[in-house]
Amino acid sequence: MSTLKLRKWESAEHLKTEADMAxxxxxxxxxxxxxAAFIAKALGHIARARGMSQLARDTGLDRESLDQAxxxxxxxxxxTILKVISALGIQLHTQDQPHRS
Length: 101
Known about the structure:
InterPro entries: Cro/C1-type_HTH (IPR001387), HI1420 (IPR014057), Lambda_DNA-bd_dom_sf (IPR010982). By secondary structure, the protein is an all-alpha fold.
């Protein structure tokens, strides 16, 4: 009987194109609900796919701080999230949500 080898899923390995990254982040926003850490971690996956060192240079933040902020365990400020989004070339758009009764 052969042994099945498994390895941890790494989302960043599957984010090859700008469209992949945009679709992934959109799906994460839909899934996250009110979980800000979920979105920070999703941005971390996109950052790793693009290159964390370059993102650190583009945001002016040190890489260790950036890794922590986008790990899902950190608590990044909104200013940090905005810097990351801008450096990644991502645009956020708003849309009215139907009111719930």
